[in-house]
Amino acid sequence: MSKQIRNLGVFLACCYAALFLQVNRLTIFQADELQDDPRNNRQVVRDFSRPRGTIETADGVVVAESVDSQDQFKFQRTYPTGDLFAHVTGFFAFQLGSTGVEREYNSELAGRGLGFDLQELDDLFVDRERVGNVTLSLRNDVQQIARDQLGQREGSVVAVDPRNGEIIALWSLPSYDPNLLATHDFPAAEAASEALNADPEEPTRSRAYREREFPGSTFKVVTATAGVERGGVTEDSPDYPVQSEYQAAGIGTPIGNFGGGSCGGTLFVILQNSCNTAFAQMGVEQAQAPGMTATAEAYGFNQEVPIDLPDPVRSRWPTEVVTDNPPFLAQASIGQNEVQSTPLQMALVAAAVANDGKVMRPHVMREILDDQGDVVERYEPSTWTTPMSEETSRLLREAMVSVVTDGTAQRLDDEVEGDVVVGGKTGTAQIGSDPPRSHAWIIGFAGPEGEVPHVAVAVLVEGQEGASEQTGGRVAAPIASAVLAAALAPPAAPAGG
User: What positions carry a catalytic annotation?
Assistant: First the structure.
């Protein structure tokens, strides 16, 4: 009998140990993963019948609010602008959980957190429940311009203030209507969710910061940074030979220019003409693999961008592939091979050039107010990374301005008025289709003469016909120009304001 009791004791001890390990795995090692899973609706269940604050844009347009539900629940979460801010606000739904700002700032919207807790004693004598109202850095007028200019073409538009990291616009198509998921008609919400999840275009997934594509020639700004910072490249040297092909280390497939043309010259000229052969040579011979890797990662590649939205993807620089492999390094130096970037990351590349070499932490929350209008929290700008010196940033700003005045990005300043400096870089990323199609890119910045540019932008228009180096300037530049002009203009007054 004592042996049986001992064996039973050992068995129970093992069960207890296994349970202890599982609990620790779930509560410690997988806590963040489980907390961030959209299917985890514990917070939603807890908060569903409580008042909830609004989300509104920097120019005063309400994009998420709670209204009387007129059913068995007290409140219905609604999104007055439909799909316009869906990838930013996300949704708040009983069965489906929450995403976007609704999830990232759930505690604040529900009136919890240190700033609210300090006021709880006062609340004992007031007949109300506290909530937090989130003010976004995004502007409704600029976001609408981004949507209208992109039209029905799939792609993304990102606009950011280089000086403080504020996201001014973040639009991608396809999008979705969060009202369909937040409805209290739960069977309808479930059906809408299943349809969205089954859509191969993944409309609930923002292409602006959660999808990455080949950046094409916009990546040459990164290569130019590496060349100047780590390879001794200056405005006047080297003077790259005029040629139609470049073969790295005499091996592998040669790099050619679009249309089989020949080009070469010094830094400003090769950036203006987006010269593949010259930038491939710069990456291989001047910057070299360690310099290219260090510079790409200093810009934020291979890192998680610290934006206050869930699940940003990392842009990719293929460190292992290019090491000791000159032909692959040549391809990567012009934004091909396995280089991939989100539009947000490429907007931050332009922002770093604009902002004296510093990348500020990107963010969508400007401030949080309580229900009495008092500030509970205000975002404090901070530097995320510094990929170049101020001297290098000044040189590259001048080079990118020359691409607008004398190169492939001449349409970037079409809509911009007044005494404004505009710089940019176009890109065309071939996607290997037959017939040929390509992604049209442009990155750029604009601001008053003598000041740090006030806005940086990245535009990606996917799957355009043909594969010409002019595609980015022809297709993406007009979109970016309209967004730059809107962002530089004073905010439009909200309707009825």
Answer: 217
